[in-house]
């Protein structure tokens, strides 16, 4: 195979993954010009992180559900009911803030186990199970709250989603600690990318040209450090961004480097082959649904902290935003394909579009139309890629 053919094959294989990053940069640049630079101001970048963090948390769990060949329509209701449980305990019964957090996590785990039982061991499709769960847990939210809103949370609970790490290392008008944290993260990314490239070369797998590899590292480092500079010039490092970063790193490792992660891909990619290979399909499906319940409770804690209370309508339509983030980020509708980082980028694309259109004063109905078209095009692109691959 010639060098040109190698490059063409490499670009074709990575088109969807690379394309989503290019699309993200293009959308950010578009709204930068449309809003006169407001969308990339330090204050707005910080608000973007705070306002959409819970959708990104849901997307991490949802992409694993989709990879396994399922869908979860109940996560918005789980966000609501776990936030309600935490609010009732902390606000009405004076339980310490951390007690409310633990109770919400436990409730999310029980909900995930409940739905995992019906999906994995009874054999009810996840679509039906979670559709029932969407109604069930929304009703439980109303019962727990007595159909009224509860607020406010104590200051410690509010800091989960609204607090910042600022001033730990000083700085003249900006937060040095934030810059140091992101610099360490960039160094870790460079090391990981270099190691992965070396391993691919050792196994005689195709890699991009060295100059292109260096350019990619420089661009990623520049974008990340620019983002860090924006945060450092606003209020510092948001606590919720720390939570999100830990989850992204942990679940990237789980999906790419563990036996369970490989089994999730196997179940979604080819169920019959997975069963013949000895994969415990039922337990994989149970684990995926259990994990989704736990992450939905984390999102519920973050959302209730951010809104400083619990409302009966909390989490409404969150499941659609999370699902859209996964498909825009490259997950396949048939399962077996998807990455945590892709889901995060897909969620960020939705966040940037929503935030940018809000800054422009675009009507909510038009925003829904745009989001729907973007989701449709993303899935159409996935179908097109599969047909082209099948025609070869």
TrEMBL record:
It is a multi-pass membrane protein. It comes from the Bacteria. The chain crosses the membrane at residues 20-37, 49-68, 73-91, 97-128, 135-153, 173-194, 206-229, 235-254, 283-303, 324-353. InterPro entries: ABC_transp_permease. Keywords: Cell inner membrane, Cell membrane, Membrane, Sugar transport, Transmembrane, Transmembrane helix, Transport. It holds the Pfam family BPD_transp_2. The keyword Cell membrane applies. It is found in: Cell membrane. Its main location: membrane. The keyword Heme does not apply. Part of the binding-protein-dependent transport system for D-xylose. Probably responsible for the translocation of the substrate across the membrane. This is Xylose transport system permease protein XylH. It comes from Demequina litoralis. The gene is gguB.
């Amino acid at each position: 195979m010639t060098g040109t053919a190698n490059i063409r094959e490499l670009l074709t294989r990575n088109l969807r993954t690379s394309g989503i990053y290019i699309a993200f940069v293009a959308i950010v640049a578009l709204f930068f010009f449309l809003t006169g630079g407001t969308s990339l101001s330090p204050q707005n970048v910080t608000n973007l992180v705070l306002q959409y963090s819970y959708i990104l948390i849901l997307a991490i769990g949802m992409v694993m559900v989709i990879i396994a060949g399922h869908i979860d329509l109940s996560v918005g209701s789980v966000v609501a009911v776990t936030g309600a449980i935490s609010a009732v305990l902390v606000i009405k019964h004076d339980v310490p803030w951390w007690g409310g957090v633990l109770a919400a996590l436990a409730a999310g785990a029980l909900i995930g186990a409940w739905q995992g039982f019906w999906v994995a061991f009874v054999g009810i499709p996840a679509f039906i199970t979670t559709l029932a769960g969407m109604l069930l847990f929304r009703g439980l939210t109303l019962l727990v709250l007595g159909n009224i809103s509860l607020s406010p949370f104590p200051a410690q609970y509010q800091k989960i989603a609204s607090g910042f790490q600022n001033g730990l290392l000083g700085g003249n008008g900006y937060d040095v600690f934030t810059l140091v944290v992101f610099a360490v993260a960039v160094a870790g990314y460079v090391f990981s990318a270099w190691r992965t490239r070396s391993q691919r070369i050792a196994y005689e797998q195709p890699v991009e040209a060295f100059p292109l590899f260096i350019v990619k590292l420089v661009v990623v480092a520049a974008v990340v450090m620019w983002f860090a500079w924006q945060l450092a010039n606003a209020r510092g490092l948001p606590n919720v961004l720390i939570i999100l970063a830990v989850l992204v790193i942990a679940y990237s490792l789980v999906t790419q480097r563990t036996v369970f992660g490989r089994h999730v891909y196997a179940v979604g990619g080819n169920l019959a082959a997975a069963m013949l290979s000895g994969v415990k399909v039922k337990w994989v499906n149970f684990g995926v649904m259990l994990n989704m319940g736990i992450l939905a409770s984390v999102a519920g804690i973050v959302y209730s902290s951010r809104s400083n209370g619990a409302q009966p309508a909390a989490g409404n339509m969150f499941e659609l935003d999370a699902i859209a983030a996964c498909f825009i980020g490259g997950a396949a509708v048939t399962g077996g394909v998807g990455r945590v980082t892709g889901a995060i980028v897909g969620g960020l694309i939705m966040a940037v579009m929503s935030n940018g259109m809000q800054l422009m004063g675009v009507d909510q109905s038009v925003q829904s139309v745009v989001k729907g078209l973007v989701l449709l095009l993303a899935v159409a692109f996935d179908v097109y890629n599969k047909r082209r691959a099948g025609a070869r």
